[in-house]
Amino acid sequence: DIQMTQSPSFVSASVGDRVTITCRASQGISSWLAWYQQKPGKAPNLMIYGAYSLQSGVPSRFSGSGYGTDFSLTISSLQPEDSATYYCQQGNSFPLTFGGGTKVEIK
Amino acid sequence: QVQLQESGPGLVKPSQTLSLICTVSGTSITSDKYSWAWIRQPAGKGLEWIGRINTSGTNYNPSLKSRVTISVDTSKNQFSLNLSSVTAADTAVYYCATYARIFIYWGQGTLVTVSS
């Protein structure tokens, strides 16, 4: 199985700050990496796919990068509505696996 | 717009079988564009992929494979999840979703509690 390790598990930042979350795969997954945003009581929402492609409707302050084993999600200017938990997911091979999540809190 | 809706019992007794249905609208479940997947999330924890089905067959998480069956009912545009011999560790919110290397569309999720 491919293990997905996210860091940090928690980040507290102010509105306007730049926030970066990283995701490391235990083996190479090419660009088969997606990021999801989940708010309390809601289903996850696809934000980034193919490591860096922005899903339709997602604000441009979100961006993704990486290839192989190391990936990142960046929020260029944190907004109050970005408070959520973010998960990475690999789609390279079965079993599909998610990172443990990063909770983003607004100070 | 593709929409998914989970349904099924919210309470299941230990050792029994958890059965959920996902009703799909906005696209045909026979479409080759998507696979149909189940994911679960225990309270306060992360996401766990359970399995998926498409026209070619099924793939299951090895950690659950011996207890899981996913099937499709094309006449009702639905797919289902059966998880046998449940324990308290299977208590979670269960989501159905479309899968095409990524989970694009999700249901709202349904809480299933395993308790006597």
Please specify the SSE layout and strand pairing.
The complex is a heterodimer of chains A (107) and B (116).
Chain A: E1 4-7, E2 10-13, E3 19-25, E4 33-38, E5 45-49, E6 53-54, E7 62-67, E8 70-75, E9 84-90, E10 97-98, E11 102-106
Parallel strand pairs in A: 2-11
Antiparallel strand pairs in A: 1-3, 3-8, 4-5, 4-9, 5-6, 7-8, 9-10, 9-11
Chain B: E1 3-7, E2 11-12, E3 18-25, E4 35-41, E5 48-54, E6 57-60, E7 68-73, E8 78-83, E9 92-99, E10 103-106, E11 110-114
Parallel strand pairs in B: 2-11
Antiparallel strand pairs in B: 1-3, 3-8, 4-5, 4-9, 5-6, 7-8, 9-10, 9-11
Description:
- The complex is a heterodimer of chains A (107) and B (116).
- With 107 residues, chain A is mainly β.
- Chain A contains no helices and eleven strands.
- Chain A has strands at residues 4-7, 10-13, 19-25, 33-38, 45-49, 53-54, 62-67, 70-75, 84-90, 97-98, 102-106.
- In chain A, strands 2, 4, 5, 6, 9, 10 and 11 form a seven-stranded mixed β-sheet that branches. In chain A, strands 1-3-8-7 form a four-stranded antiparallel β-sheet, with no helix packed on it.
- In chain A, strand 7 and strand 8 (70-75) form a beta hairpin.
- The radius of gyration of chain A is 13 Å and the shape is globular.
- The relative contact order of chain A is 0.34.
- The model of chain A has no long low-confidence stretch (mean pLDDT 98).
- Chain B is mainly beta.
- In chain B, the strands form two sheets. In chain B, strands 2, 4, 5, 6, 9, 10 and 11 form a seven-stranded mixed β-sheet that branches.
- In chain B, a hairpin with a 4-residue loop joins strand 7 (68-73) and strand 8.
- The radius of gyration of chain B is 13 Å and the shape is globular.
- Chain B starts with a strand and ends with a strand.
- Chains A and B meet through strand 5 and strand 10 of A and strand 5, strand 9 and strand 10 of B.
